[in-house]
Amino acid sequence: MNPLPQYNEPSSAPTNWPDRKRLALSIVVNVEEGAEQSVQDGDPRPEPVDELGVVLRKPQRNLANESNYRYGIQAGAPRILALLAEKNVVATFTCAALSLERAPDLAKQIVASGHEICAHGLRWTHQHRMNESEERAFIKATIESITTRCGSRPLGWLSRYLITENTRRLLAESGFIYHMDDYSDDQPFWDTQGDHSILVLPYALDTNDMKLWASPSYMPADWLQYAKDTFDCLYAEGAEHTRMMSIGCTYALWVGPAAFTHWKNF
Fold first, then answer.
1. CA 20 to 30 Å from 101, out of 7, 8, 59, 141?
2. In terms of pTM, does the model score above 0.85?
3. For residues 191, 194, 197 and 201, what is the CA-based torsion angle, rounded to 10 degrees?
4. Whether the Cβ atoms of residue 80 and residue 16 lie closer than 8 Å to each other
5. Is 179 exposed, middle or buried (0-12, 13-18, 19+ CB in 10 A)?
6. DSSP class of residue 118?
7. Into which CATH architecture does domain 26-264 fall?
């Protein structure tokens, strides 16, 4: 990996936001449903990310968990899109290409609503076991699929967490202008990959709704208070420093009526 950039250098990050705003909010909606690990798609076992923590080791379908993911598309997407329209918020939809292929009407609605499509892989799968050729092909296929489905190519990329030492370079070489697989700062920064520069927009796991599944005792009300505290801290720091807050939302997690109400109240 490249050495960590010196963030305190003036050129490492934007000096301020337009109109001297204190804080930028990166609202990220993850679209992964239909692209998760699946026996039907030839995987050796079903998707291990399950609300009850059920992990089947055999090549057997987890029909209950499959319905969790369907709920995200059928019930969650309309709620999220309606809320964003009501609040006049433009969000970044990080989409696994296969999810959009299997939910073409949703793809059309996201684009028609003016939201940005960011690539989230061909499928919702980790890349860390891919060699360079495999990962390059994975990125290329993702671009082609999303371009066909949405009418324009994605310019940003967020992986399913585990990446390789080649990932950012391959993205820069493939024409991406920003990369979100980074958790090292509260501000964007530039990274140089060979002859290319790419903007790193740090993502955040602490304000991500995935914690609702990772920790059963972590309730939506806890998330709301945590998000508000994060906002207050970064907003105060924004008086003197460039700050960005990332909030990640997943259809299959935040769309139940109670959880959605807390997200809406942020």
1. 59
2. yes
3. -40
4. no
5. buried
6. E
7. Alpha-Beta Barrel (3.20)
Instruction: Kindly state the helix (H) or strand (E) to which residue 248 belongs, with its residue range.
Output: strand 244-250
Within 10 A of 7 (CB to CB), how many other CB atoms are there? 14
User: What stretches of the chain show up as alpha helix (H) in DSSP?
Assistant: 63-71, 77-87, 97-102, 104-112, 132-150, 167-173, 211-214, 220-237, 251-254, 257-264
Q: For 132, how many CA atoms within 13 A lie in the half-sphere containing its CB?
A: 6
User: What SS3 state is found at 59?
Assistant: coil
8, amino acid identity: N
**Among candidate residues 77, 161, 168, 153, the one with its CA nearest the CA of residue 117:** 153
- The domains of the chain are located at 26-264
118 Rama class: left (phi>0) / alpha (psi -120 to 50) / beta: beta
Find out whether 138 and 88 touch, Cβ atoms under 8 Å.
no
d(CA 251, CA 223): 16
Cα angle at 168 between 30 and 98, to 5 degrees? 35
Torsion of CA 63, 67, 69, 74, to 10 degrees: 150
3-state helix, strand, coil in the chain (%, to 5): 40, 15, 45
Residues 6+ positions from 249 with CB-CB distance below 8 Å = 27, 28, 29, 30, 80, 209, 263
Q: Using an 8 Å Cβ cutoff, are 149 and 31 in contact?
A: no
- Summarised one tens digit per residue, pLDDT across range 216-242 is 778 889 999 999 999 999 999 999 999
